[in-house]
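Aim 2 progress update. The chain analyzed this quarter is reproduced below.
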Amino acid sequence: MSRTRFFVQPAQNSDGWEIRKEGASQASAIKPTAPEAWKRGVEIADNQEPSQLLKRNSRNGQFHKERTFGNDPRDIEG
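Predicted C-alpha coordinates:
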Protein backbone atom coordinates (compact mmCIF):
# COMPACT_ATOMS: atom_id res chain seq x y z
CA MET A 1 0.00 0.00 0.00
CA SER A 2 1.41 3.41 -0.90
CA ARG A 3 1.58 6.32 1.48
CA THR A 4 -0.48 9.49 1.18
CA ARG A 5 1.99 12.39 1.02
CA PHE A 6 1.46 15.78 2.62
CA PHE A 7 3.71 18.81 2.28
CA VAL A 8 4.29 21.69 4.69
CA GLN A 9 5.50 24.57 2.51
CA PRO A 10 5.24 28.32 2.04
CA ALA A 11 1.64 29.15 1.09
CA GLN A 12 1.15 29.65 -2.65
CA ASN A 13 -1.71 32.16 -2.53
CA SER A 14 -1.24 33.92 0.83
CA ASP A 15 1.20 34.64 3.62
CA GLY A 16 2.07 31.86 6.00
CA TRP A 17 2.58 28.14 5.57
CA GLU A 18 0.24 25.57 4.05
CA ILE A 19 -0.35 21.85 4.47
CA ARG A 20 -1.16 20.38 1.07
CA LYS A 21 -1.94 16.79 0.11
CA GLU A 22 0.01 15.60 -2.90
CA GLY A 23 -1.97 16.33 -6.07
CA ALA A 24 -4.53 18.55 -4.30
CA SER A 25 -5.57 21.84 -5.88
CA GLN A 26 -6.18 23.48 -2.49
CA ALA A 27 -4.34 23.46 0.83
CA SER A 28 -5.77 21.37 3.66
CA ALA A 29 -4.85 24.17 6.10
CA ILE A 30 -2.86 27.41 6.29
CA LYS A 31 -1.02 28.53 9.42
CA PRO A 32 0.94 31.73 10.10
CA THR A 33 4.23 30.02 11.04
CA ALA A 34 6.15 26.92 9.98
CA PRO A 35 6.05 25.30 13.46
CA GLU A 36 2.26 25.74 13.65
CA ALA A 37 1.90 24.29 10.15
CA TRP A 38 4.11 21.31 11.03
CA LYS A 39 2.02 20.61 14.15
CA ARG A 40 -1.23 20.71 12.13
CA GLY A 41 0.38 18.63 9.39
CA VAL A 42 1.23 15.92 11.94
CA GLU A 43 -2.41 15.84 13.03
CA ILE A 44 -3.67 15.58 9.44
CA ALA A 45 -1.14 12.95 8.32
CA ASP A 46 -1.66 10.87 11.47
CA ASN A 47 -5.36 10.57 10.58
CA GLN A 48 -4.55 9.38 7.03
CA GLU A 49 -2.27 6.39 7.77
CA PRO A 50 -0.21 5.21 6.02
CA SER A 51 1.13 8.65 5.23
CA GLN A 52 4.22 10.79 4.97
CA LEU A 53 4.71 14.45 5.95
CA LEU A 54 7.51 16.49 4.34
CA LYS A 55 8.56 20.08 5.07
CA ARG A 56 10.07 22.22 2.33
CA ASN A 57 12.72 24.81 3.10
CA SER A 58 11.36 28.27 2.27
CA ARG A 59 14.65 29.42 0.74
CA ASN A 60 15.55 26.67 -1.70
CA GLY A 61 12.51 24.38 -1.89
CA GLN A 62 14.42 21.31 -0.73
CA PHE A 63 12.95 19.02 1.91
CA HIS A 64 14.55 19.27 5.32
CA LYS A 65 12.13 17.47 7.63
CA GLU A 66 10.18 14.23 7.21
CA ARG A 67 7.93 11.98 9.26
CA THR A 68 5.98 8.83 8.41
CA PHE A 69 2.83 7.39 9.98
CA GLY A 70 1.71 3.74 9.99
CA ASN A 71 3.25 0.58 8.52
CA ASP A 72 6.85 1.47 9.41
CA PRO A 73 9.31 -1.44 9.34
CA ARG A 74 10.31 -2.42 12.87
CA ASP A 75 13.82 -3.77 12.13
CA ILE A 76 15.51 -0.70 10.66
CA GLU A 77 18.54 0.63 12.52
CA GLY A 78 18.81 4.31 13.40
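Residues 34-46 form the longest helix (13 residues). The CA atoms of residues 20 and 27 lie 4 Å apart. These observations will guide the mutagenesis experiments scheduled for the next reporting period.
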